[in-house]
Q: What sequence folds into this?
């Protein structure tokens, strides 16, 4: 089956620090990979995605590269802001059906001024 | 704008009552999902549907029921049989096939009073 493993949180950083949130996966088939962000009291928003090996997804200063050889999709940002404080979910999809859509448990990111 | 609308945003339920959470999408998606999120926890799948008049149980379906009479709508009923219903409920939709992303609503926070 499919699974997604994320680093446990909370992750606490100072403003302007470099961010990495690790994500590794196992999948049957060739997945698309996603990062979602959830702000307090809200739903999940798609942050970025990549659909094939070596693709780089990017949005709002965040980046993640689809690494098939290491089955990873780590989220990075060069300089975080207080407004980046949220929960980040790594996810994959291999196809139709609910089994094809798999989420990690989420990483709570706290940015201190 | 296309998207998913959940209502209400906050809902209070008395012991022994059934309550229904609304989820409507205008993205023309075949697949719809209901997830439950508890504080500090990831997403747990309650029910999903890939086509009108058909739905399947997820990991935690006990105490919940759904219907899919229209493509656009996938309401969730939290029945009195659900012993611990206080949680944040998220509805999502996606294409039925392929490896595309899921889109989420803003969530409904249900509290038992």
A:
């Amino acid at each position: 089956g499919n699974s997604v493993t994320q680093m446990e949180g909370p992750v606490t950083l100072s403003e302007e620090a470099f961010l990495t949130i690790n994500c590794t996966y196992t999948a049957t088939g060739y997945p698309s990979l996603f990062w979602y962000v959830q702000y307090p009291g809200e739903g999940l928003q798609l942050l970025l995605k990549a659909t094939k090996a070596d693709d780089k997804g990017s949005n709002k200063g965040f980046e993640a590269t689809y690494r098939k050889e290491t089955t990873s999709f780590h989220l990075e940002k060069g300089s975080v802001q207080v407004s980046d404080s949220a929960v980040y979910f790594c996810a994959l999809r291999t196809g139709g059906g609910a089994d094809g859509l798999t989420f990690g448990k989420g990483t709570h990111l706290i940015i201190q001024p | 704008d296309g998207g998913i609308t959940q209502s209400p945003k906050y809902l209070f339920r008395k012991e022994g009552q059934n309550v229904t959470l609304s989820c409507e999408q205008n993205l023309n998606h075949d697949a719809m999902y209901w997830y439950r999120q508890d504080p500090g926890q990831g997403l747990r799948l309650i029910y999903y549907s890939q086509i009108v008049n058909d739905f399947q149980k997820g990991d935690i379906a006990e105490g919940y029921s759904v219907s899919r009479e229209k493509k656009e709508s996938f309401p969730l009923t939290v029945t009195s049989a659900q012993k611990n219903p206080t949680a944040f409920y998220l509805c999502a939709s996606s294409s039925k096939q392929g490896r595309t992303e899921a889109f989420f609503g803003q969530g409904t926070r249900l509290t038992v009073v």
Notes: The longest strand of chain A covers residues 86-93. Chain A touches chain B at residues 30-32, 34, 36, 41-46, 49, 51, 89, 91, 93-98, 100-101, 103-106, 108 (CB under 8 Å).
